[in-house]
Write a structure and sequence with these properties.
MoeA_linker/N, magnesium, alpha+beta, binds ligand LQZAQKY5, transferase, about 20% helix, Molybdopterin molybdenumtransferase, binds molybdate ion, six-stranded mixed β-sheet, elongated, Molybdopterin biosynthesis moea protein, domain 2, Molybdopterin biosynthesis moeA protein, domain 3
């Protein structure tokens, strides 16, 4: 049986991802979205030379320790001083206020002794002190956020400061998820003999949702041709950008998903990948819809979605590929066979740095071990096994890294 190498499978998937399409969204709705165009500043920030302190705007050359100078006015944020200061003059100024003409430094009020309309300072000051020069943060016309930036609190605050009420972001795909299996019941129902509670769709939706316009749960379809044809044709006709099935991907008589998809016009790009868990992964397309047939085993479904669908979504949005981490093992790993192994692990921070602890459980139906993991250790094909301290590649499962 020929199994496609993992890297080749990923390359084939990424090659089917369409180019980024942009749409305009208001600033308030842009959290988590990805910029489809670089963001350029419309103005200088600050727009004027501004004081960084509450104190006095001075001509630095005029200031001598203990020598009184005349206070001729006030500049406050939103109401600047409407004149120019000349030799021997200063202006009372507040944080964020425009520096008056003629001034070139600000002395904080804690270093000033004020008496009526005179003020003296305890020491001299260098020109530029406590002044934020115009355009110091960003200059009009400059690129302040590159295309492909995933917008979050800091970049959105910057976009607002740059006076950008609308942003050009990547359109996100609409995703449909369909579970297959005669044995499946919904969470909350009572288990009859031989039944299993369906879990895959409940993990896949939150795994993918932050990159998707919507993730729609299409329910459970039974393992007979008629039901599968009905459910899959409806799903394929619903205009999803990405359709995901779980289960029925292997070689048993009930594993009919691939046959039915093909009958419905899906072109299969590949089936079966040289990995564990997740070997029976299928990928195809019909028109603009990409179709992922994930294995039914819960760990296999989540691992294949992490390894293949998340990178496809990143590409869809114009995000750079997520880089795995390089970390020392905190325990041993056993020799691997010929399939690339995505081994559950936990990232642990110790006094000596960050390490990854392998979780020995490799059963592809064992969800509690996956839930206790926050990383997948990528064990290469035919790896002889690792010792504590060996450096390994690690895919963090934490969304913050994705
Ligand atoms: N003779 C062979 N048998 C199997 C092979 C093989 O190569 N030759 N591959 C094995 C591997 S590897 C995997 S993975 C599984 C994948 O099987 P399917 O994708 O056909 O999945 P099912 O048979 O439908 O289900 C497997 C397992 O997962 C449970 N399941 C299914 N859907 C869900 C769901 N939505 N939520 C929770 N659990 C689900 C299902 O009850 C089964 O226990 O095939 C091996 N067999
Ligand atoms: O490779 Mo399967 O996906 O063992 O569970």
């Amino acid at each position: 049986m020929s199994l496609l190498p993992v890297d080749e499978a990923l390359a084939r998937i990424l090659a089917r991802v369409p180019p980024v399409i942009s749409e305009t969204v208001p600033l308030e709705q842009a959290d988590g979205r990805v910029l489809a165009e670089p963001l350029k500043a419309q103005h200088n920030q600050p727009p004027f030379d501004a004081s960084a302190m509450d104190g006095y705007a001075v001509r630095a050359a005029d200031v001598e320790a203990g020598q009184p100078l005349s206070v001729i006015g006030t500049s406050q944020a939103g109401a600047g001083f409407d004149g120019t200061i000349s030799q021997g003059e200063v202006v009372r100024i507040f944080t964020g206020a425009p520096l008056p003409g003629g001034a070139d430094a600000v002395i904080m009020q804690e270093e000033a002794d004020r008496k009526d309309d005179k003020v003296s300072f305890r020491s001299t000051v260098a020109a530029g002190r406590s002044v934020r020069p115009r355009g110091n943060d960003f200059a009009a016309g400059s690129e302040i956020l590159p295309q492909g930036t995933r917008l979050g609190p800091f970049s959105l605050a910057l976009a607002a400061a740059a006076n950008a009420p609308m942003l050009e972001v990547a359109r996100r795909p609409r995703i449909g998820v369909l579970a297959t299996g005669d044995e499946l019941i919904l969470p909350g129902q009572t288990l009859a003999p031989g039944q299993i509670v369906a879990s895959n769709s409940y993990g896949l939706a939150p795994l993918l949702s932050s990159f998707a316009e919507s993730t729609e749960d299409l329910g459970i379809v039974r393992d007979n041709r008629q039901s599968a044809v009905l459910a899959l044709s409806e799903a394929l006709d619903s205009g999803f950008d990405i359709l995901i099935t779980t289960g029925g991907a292997s070689v048993g008589e009930h594993d009919i998903v691939q046959d039915v998809l093909q009958d419905l016009g899906v072109e299969i790009d590949f089936w079966r990948v040289n990995m564990r868990p997740g070997k029976p992964l299928m990928f195809g397309h019909r028109g603009k819809t990409l179709v992922f047939g994930l294995p039914g085993n819960p760990v296999s479904a989540m691992v294949t979605a992490t390894v293949f669908i998340l990178p496809a979504l990143r590409r869809w949005l114009g995000l750079a590929e997520a880089q795995p981490l390089r970390l020392p093992l905190a325990g041993t790993t056993t020799p691997n066979g010929s399939r690339r192994h995505f081994l559950r692990g936990r990232i642990v921070t110790t006094e000596n740095g960050t390490v990854v602890l392998p979780i020995p459980q490799t059963d592809s139906a064992h969800l509690s071990s996956l839930a206790s993991a926050d990383a997948l250790i990528i064990q290469p094909e035919d790896d002889p096994g690792g010792a504590e301290g060996d450096l390994v590649w690690v895919l963090p499962l934490d969304q913050a890294f994705q």
